[in-house]
């Protein structure tokens, strides 16, 4: 069952964090986590985690399921399953799920606006939950990368990707937000780009994409828990050469 959202709140418990709650009393537009930790020399200490908005780009409806242009949706589905986050709320023209990765709160989103208007969901969600740009992770398909190859960046342009371009427009033109690109390869010969994007993968390509989804979930988890560090550089290097036999 799907639910419309107003000011969602939830709580859960962790072994090292007895009280963990998103507190709606802090304000209708604030998405915040307070975590009580063990006592220190100065008494009880409080830790506040900054939430992440992880949005996968794609087109809604069974017609587009499994197509190249919808791998962003597939990553969100994979994260949802791996982390036990139910996607059952409609808000800001998006299907969303609220949960956590480790002890960090996350908001998963699949815009239902169709690809070229993705910003109509991502922009309002980021504003409503007051998610900083550095914690808005966009996941999308990328023709400049070989099929199944991933690339994680802390910022960048839109590279003529209409969904990414629209999101940037709804974030005041900023490019200062992370993105995870999933390679889908280039159209063969003179094949029309639109037809290629709305085409399903071959059996070999599908296997590569399924492997990349697993790797993408792990990359997102590492990013959310550790931020951009040397692991990201190593991840991108491994991805770049993973189909090259030496």
From TrEMBL:
Signal peptide: none annotated. InterPro entries: Pept_tRNA_hydro, Pept_tRNA_hydro_CS, Pept_tRNA_hydro_sf. PROSITE patterns: PEPT_TRNA_HYDROL_1, PEPT_TRNA_HYDROL_2. Pfam families: Pept_tRNA_hydro. GO terms for molecular function: peptidyl-tRNA hydrolase activity. Gene3D superfamilies: Peptidyl-tRNA hydrolase. It comes from the Eukaryota. Belongs to the PTH family. PANTHER family: CHLOROPLASTIC GROUP IIB INTRON SPLICING FACILITATOR CRS2-B, CHLOROPLASTIC, PEPTIDYL-TRNA HYDROLASE. NCBIfam families: pth. This is Peptidyl-tRNA hydrolase. It comes from Crotalaria pallida (Smooth rattlebox).
């Amino acid at each position: 069952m799907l639910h419309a959202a107003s000011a969602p709140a939830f709580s859960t418990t962790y072994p090292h964090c007895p009280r963990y709650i998103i507190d709606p009393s802090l304000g209708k537009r604030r998405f915040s986590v307070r975590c009580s930790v063990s006592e220190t020399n100065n008494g009880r200490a409080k830790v506040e985690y900054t939430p992440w908005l992880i949005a996968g780009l794609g087109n809604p409806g069974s017609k587009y399921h499994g197509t190249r242009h919808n791998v962003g949706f597939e990553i969100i589905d994979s994260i949802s399953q791996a982390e036990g986050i139910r996607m059952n709320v409609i808000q800001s023209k998006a299907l969303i799920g609220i949960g956590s990765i480790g002890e960090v709160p996350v908001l998963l989103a699949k815009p239902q606006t169709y690809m070229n208007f993705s910003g109509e969901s991502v922009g309002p969600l980021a504003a409503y939950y007051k998610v900083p740009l550095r914690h808005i992770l966009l996941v999308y398909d990328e023709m400049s990368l070989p099929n199944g190859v991933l690339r994680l960046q802390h910022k960048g342009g839109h590279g003529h990707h209409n969904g990414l371009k629209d999101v940037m427009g709804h974030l005041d033109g900023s490019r200062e937000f992370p993105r995870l690109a999933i390679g889908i390869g280039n159209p063969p010969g003179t094949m029309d780009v639109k037809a290629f994007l709305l085409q399903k993968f071959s059996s070999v390509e599908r296997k590569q994409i399924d492997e990349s989804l697993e790797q993408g979930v792990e990359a997102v988890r590492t990013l959310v828990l550790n931020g951009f560090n040397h692991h990201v550089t190593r991840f991108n290097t491994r991805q770049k050469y993973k189909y090259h036999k030496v």
